[in-house]
Batch of 4 targets.
Target 1
Amino acid sequence: MSLLEIRDLIKSYRTPDGEVQTVLDVPAFELGEKEHVALRGTSGTGKTTLLNCIAGILSPDSGHIELAGRDMAVLGESARDRHRADHIGYIFQTFNLLQGYTCLENVLLGMSFGPGKDRARARELLTRVGLEDRLNYRPSQLSVGQQQRVAVARALANQPQLVLADEPTGNLDPRNGREALKLIREICGETDAALLLVSHDQEVLNQFDECRDLAEINQAMREVSTT
């Protein structure tokens, strides 16, 4: 059964010289419940734009993005925010942690956009990612790998049906990258969450049974690669 279904998705930007550049042209894409899929794509191929459209952070020019029975592309901003909070966990490449808040507070703030704050679950998640002794540390007091673990805990705090991961190992060294990826996949498996990860790192992509090239589903990129 499809959790995510994309049809005829178009997203364009206007360049500084006034031209319209199409970044996404996706006729069809589906992701099933509990499915883990990696998308391969180099810089500038629309990876982050695609994830942001799925999450409702960006609005597409046209098309449909059905997630858990509702079309994100036609919802108003507040409805998109609500649906995202209820169904999506997002692991950003740059973590997007709030620097003035502790690890525990960052996870609790993520929960506040969903069902509500659950301090016991927040502590449990941070313990699960190996930060039980860093609950009251701020991001600046953590290593890069530890910050990524906070981002993982926050993304999974509301038990999402879908986890989006944008180059989640991009700022990590190889060892921490492998550990972070293993952790993401393990927790998604434990909570029955689907995972859509985008990366250019072949070592990361090799960990997935299903890996697709973004250019295969994005006609805009196919056109660029053939010109």
Target 2
Amino acid sequence: MELAARIEKLGTETAFAVSAEANLFQRQGHRVYPFHLGDINLRTPDNIIEAAYRAMREGKTGYAPNAGLPELREALAEDVNKSHGTHYTYKNVAIQPGGKPVISKFIQALMDPGTEVLYPNPGYPIYESQIEFHGGVAVPYGFLRGETNFRLDLDSLEKKITRRTKLLILNDLHNPTGAEADPEELERIAELVRTHDLSVLCDEAYFDIRYEGTSRSLASLPEMEERCVLLYTFSKKYAMTGWRLGAAIGPEHVIDTISKLSLNDESCTNHFVQIAGVEALRGDQSGSKRILSTLKERRDVAVSILKQIPGVTCYTPHATFYLYPDVTELMQRKGFTEYEPFRRDVLHKTGVSFCTRLHFGRALPGEERKYIRLAYSGIDGEVIQEALERFKQYAVEY
């Protein structure tokens, strides 16, 4: 069978290749510290598990409405309205089997072939993959170093807008850098959206993984609610990565189209998992608070050690569960000019496995600094300390 030509445009998450390599190294008898994947090794709260179990026992194992259970759509609209100051109803919510399908369905619903789509780079690689697979033109925008965190390069973003630009993908509370826009930057983004008549995918997967301060959404600003589709996921806040439960939230006509795509693609989202989602939103929240507290402890342990390592600098992001340290001087001192030999050297000598900047898109013109990404969501605090102490020892050895 001859594959369709468009398959060549379909990318992947190269972090999984790093994971495969680390697993092979581990099977050979070596200790591996897996900072490469953003999975969570914390248990889903018991009340959510029990809700799913009860639903299965009660026969909630058949088809569900393709847009999702009305009670879950209502609960999610209420929850988002509370945090965002928006005015959504259940009609503005389409339940999905995870957050990732929202990316492709947003693109399919709103992008014609040849349309230019602005997306973050470095960023989640599926953005670029889906834009190009569906015939769009992927236009990357980057980030700049700030005083306390990375920030959007808004000047560059604005210069890349043309008459063919129709869509903007905004991952505020950003994977991999942990960057977030301040109120003034969000206002400027909103002005660009209004001026150029753009539609926006607000990927808010990490909106609730917040350690200090308050998360903000572009959709909360004037005239933005009707121009934004929110990507919501239960995976992070409730440690439900494998449950595959998320939602698209936005203008009713777009949500109806996304629901139609769902009907064509997967029929519906799992029935009893949706019942668990209602419990997650409306039930006891102590479990999600414990998850957040544990993640904060892990962040603090990791940052404190990274800041002691010669040749490494690292911000302390207030959200997400990623760190994006600058390793430029360390690589130079170790004699590395390319990422992959450095990454493998660290893995083989310390067991510490991580992704690099190039796992999140092709380097943009003018990039000179070198970065790695550490995901601390799947590693216990004491193991993080052990791993990064080994990385520290590697850094000081000549």
Target 3
Amino acid sequence: MTPAATEAVFQLRDVSKVYRSGDGVEVHALRGVNLDLYRGELVVLLGPSGSGKSTLLNILGGLDTPTSGQVIYLDHNLTEASDRDLTRFRREHVGFVFQFYNLIPSLTALENVQLVTEIAERPMDARELLGMVGLQDRLNNFPGQLSGGEQQRVAIARAVAKRPDVLLCDEPTGALDVVTGRVVLDVLAKVNRELGTTTAVITHNAAIAGMADRVVRISSGQIAEIHRNEKRVSPAELEW
């Protein structure tokens, strides 16, 4: 599948983000970024710490807004959206997975996922989802009874429970060892493949790039390179 054969879900045009510190110093997190993300693809946004990856992901997810430029999601101009509109956009269209799992410790794995299914308009079945991520035998375990990789898989199940069009993942393997990280990446690839969810994974780990349809390298707030993999590598084959 090539970009020409499918629909651009996101279009970023000349997007810049400037933060001002307490003493008035300007920090340019993004500088004139132009990027399209296409329906159903898996993209790895690759770059070192401080390169602007998380800022870009937050803008895509409606958690932040650019200082200048345009962000278009399908036919919605997110740069002109109100706070209420952005909240609705996040609730209806976007799932988030972060480095730290943010599970509620007093709720079981099943209950953590059900929190989303109870408020979503067209939710998936929580038990089915936990089975999809290989946790069918851990439904009634609390987060404290689960390994880091298991907690991250619960977090992924929770993120996709509302059937988001877009899944945004911020260093999802950053707190995990290599073996566990491969398992989590395999779950993300499975979600992308079986549900057709447009998936963006940000990482500083270059080895992960092999699993993507496209790799977007970010440096000093700018896109340094966009590379298309001819063939995606299975997460089980990744080495780092």
Target 4
Amino acid sequence: MRIINVNPIPSSIFEELGFYWYTSPETPNYVADELVVITEAEGEAYYRAANELYDMFIEAGQYAIDHDLYDLFDIPRNLKEMIEVSWEDESHFHMIGRFDFAGGVDGKPIKLVELNADTPSVVFEIALIQWMILKHNKMKEENQFNSLYETLKESFIRLKRLHPYFGKHEEKIPRALFSCLNYSIEDENTTRLFEQIAYEAGFMTDFQYVDKVYFSSNEGIFKKNGEEDVKFDYWFKPIPYEYIGREEPELAGILTDILKNKLAILLNPPYALLFQSKSILKILCDLFPGHPLLLETDFEPLKDKACVEKKTLGREGANVRILDASGNTLLNTPGDYETYRSIYQEYVDLPVDAQGRFYQAGVFFSYEACGLGFRREKGIIQDRSQFVGHFITNFS
């Protein structure tokens, strides 16, 4: 790994921005005071991989729908209609996802680890923080593969073009409500970042915690504003769909009706859950055997090969096991996803630095690849693994 040191951003600036999770008892320095150095060719290769893979995910998603693979994907059956309604109407736009990759630097080939398609994290870090590190160190912002903020703004503008039947309020401006659960400052401030971007794209926006939002099968999505009910055309929520399906089945039914009646659009769309389930990694291998971007994946441990066991709807590195070729556990993480189906993905070494820290690349996708960043850890990459920005150099 090629690493350069940079001057860290003062905590006071982080807090002024609303980035309060820059430190925690487990990770006192969540944002590294170093940058991964990559070449322009390496950055372009990450982007090409994300763009190519997204088209492959669309084909795999259609296969899953055609063959009714919801049970295999651990997707609650009460989400099936909602998923298919959003899939069949191209105006339901997949706002954002994040590909995780192994390799891509030091001559190692790029390999897909997974696609975080429903509620991807580190948006704040890639869109704002690593850009701020460059500015703070008087580096040119062109020396980074990072247009996430601008691309998200273009995606919101694209949404407006897809929905001419919206924006029929008195002010003739589409309305978007941004909601999250009231327990995580990271979720809230990331949600508010999306709200700011949508506002800049020409939406009338508002924020409300999800438990105070009103849903009606026949009327849509509302927020109380004094004695008035304000109706919204779009609802953004960083709440996993499988959680809604299992824990809030009544809401799942109402949201299905809202989509069928064209009363509102959900961001991300429900079909993102097809891409989120790691079962799709097995389908990709079946549809594209031997593809250079894919790692062999199955629902049983791979014979005579080291592999990584993951849960279909596991998140943030929880319930992961690394197995050697004999099936012995080398590393594992705890978590709350043990009831889900396991998938087994061929193990591949991540790039490693002189301190023994492994690096995993993340590439955001919003209509196109648009933002690169890294996480690093001495073991399995998890939610609190250190975030590392990057810097482009032109050496070959």
